[in-house]
Amino acid sequence: MQARSDLISNIIMYALLGDQMTKEQLKQARQQLGLTQAGMAKAMGIVTRKWERWEGGHSPISPEGERLVGMLVEMKDVK
């Protein structure tokens, strides 16, 4: 539970500071949600390849994408 709380705090901090989430943070968020890369992409309404590029560090995640990742992680905490 503490790791998830720390992840949420980090996502919020990155969003507020305008910094981008690292590929490691993206992977951690996806894994905490219990999703595959394809499942995460589907949950976000994007194509799988886009998520793979973000998580692989080949393409920067958009600010909107970061906010959506944060919301998905927070929603998981509410359940």
How do the strands and helices of this protein lay out in sequence?
Elements: H1 2-17, H2 23-32, H3 37-44, H4 48-55, H5 63-78
Helix pairs in contact: 1-5, 3-4
Number of strands: 0
- Average pLDDT reading: 84
Q: Based on CA inertia axes, which overall geometry fits?
A: globular
**Order of helix and strand elements from N to C terminus:** HHHHH
Briefly note the structural class of the backbone.
mainly alpha
Strand content: under 5%
Oligomer: single chain
Query: What's the helical proportion of residues?
Result: over 70%
Can you summarize the main beta sheet?
Answer: none
- Give the C-alpha Rg: 11 Å
Determine the N-to-C terminus distance.
13 Å
Task: Give the helix tally.
Answer: 5
Q: Segments where pLDDT lies below 50 for 5+ residues?
A: none
What does this structure look like?
It contains five helices and no strands. It has helices spanning 2-17, 23-32, 37-44, 48-55, 63-78. It is globular.
State the gist of this model.
The chain contains five helices and no strands.
Descriptive terms for the model:
79 residues; mainly alpha; 5 helices; 0% strand
